[in-house]
Amino acid sequence: MNGLGQMIWFDSGKMYYGNYVNNKKNGLGIFFWGLNKKWAGYWKDGLRDGPGILIFSDNTQERGIWDKGEKIDISDQNKDQIYKEIEEFYQKTLSEFNSFEK
User: Fold this and answer.
1) 53 with 83: CB under 8 angstroms?
2) Is the pTM here over 0.85, yes or no?
3) Which of 23, 56, 26, 64 is nearest to 42 (CA)?
4) Residue-wise pLDDT tens digits, 47-77
5) What domains are defined for the chain?
């Protein structure tokens, strides 16, 4: 798969909606672990890579930068703008999903 797509693992309740390159998560996307938590952020070669927001079931958030699936600590002058873009993508995606239910 290449481009924007969605993958659902019915047996575990997991879902991914976002960009793919050569069947791997790449670019901006959202991964849902059932109803427990979500990751909205950047991916590279199937791993969380770059800025992202981990959103828990109570809507608390953990923002951070990931490198090849591991959270790292770095400062980035543009991170506020990047997080804003991630939030906008997340909100837009949620409203699209909610429109399917109506």
Assistant:
1) yes
2) no
3) 26
4) 999 888 889 999 898 888 888 998 886 665 5
5) 3-101 (2.20.110)
